[in-house]
Amino acid sequence: MAINPEKIVKKIRELPPLPIIAQRLLEVVDDDRSSANDLTEIILTDQALTAKVLRLVNSSFYGFSRKISTLSKAVVIIGFAAIKNMAISFCTVEAIKKLKGPVDWERYWEHGITCASAGKFLCQALKDPVPEKAFVIGLLHDVGYAIICATHPKEFEEFIDKGYYTSIVEEKEFFGISHPEVGRMLMEHWRFPEDICRVVRHHHTPSMIEKAEDIQLPVLVMANAYSYINDASYYDPFCSEMLSGALSAISLSSTQYSGVFKDVAEHVKMTKDFFGLSFNSEETVSRSDDLRVSFISSDTKRSEWVGAIIESWGMTPVLVSSFKPIIAHEQDISLVILDAAALSGEPMLLLARKLSSEGINVCISESSSETHMADIGLPVIPYLFKCEDVKKQIKSFSQ
Ligand SMILES: [Fe+2]
Ligand SMILES: [Fe+2]
User: Does pTM top 0.70 for this prediction?
Assistant: First the structure.
């Protein structure tokens, strides 16, 4: 049952604008003539916001030994852009919190904050001058869901119950509009800069990833993928094509990715606390130090990413470069994952058969495209496999 997109457009227009303070902060973003003094003056007009910003800059995350007692000092030490985006984030979270509807808010914020934190650290690793922009984008990119739910709660529940969220096309067919389109409308209504609106609009559009003008779109896609594999996802449909595009656009080594992933979990915890979004859910972290996993692919960019992901799960990634089938037993490898895309070559097929015939646990990870995969009788795991997929596969071999 499609809804009337006009109703959503009308509702967005009726929504209150962001608080004046946030609007003024957004104006500062685009005004080169603005100074640190302008920024502190705006924030100082709101006592609660000032206190929040100071509490955050004095938190263990920044790790300053001396207390930063004034906002102007914080701007000097943390930076103009960081303080500005931090304040905008606080204001927008407060505005979204006012939206009602049967959204699973715990998962919604878990996803937004995970994407925000992962995006920020990815940008830092990429030496982007304003990593906080990725934080704001990650935090707000799925706001379209909150609006659809607030305006059409019954239809939203029906859609979720039917499990329709497998692709953005199905979402658009059902609602007549997709959450990135709705998200963009709200961001425009809130007068966010055009570059941020554009990233929100296209975060599920594979054709846009190659055309991206800066790293913000691929970074957001990667942050979404990170959230998905670590079960911090919302209803977002996953598109493997988007991730392969993002991996092509971003050049980070496995070590750099590991540095990013190491910091995300702690930052998410701290951020939830600061935004008043901690839901007291039990966190269970199970490490798997004894598992040694090898990922073999002809796509070096994907190998770097996957290696770091495997490490972030507490498993030991065994490097492809040092891998020789003959010594696989000696290396005590729990599982070898072969990238389906790499299997198109005859040598890889031979390698897969050889490993398998030697009793080594081998499986194939699906390709990012629809191309036909060679059927060589090996188990298959998803392109964006999760920790559980790997563990299940290892378990199935031991049975
Ligand atoms: Fe998302
Ligand atoms: Fe999304």
Answer: yes
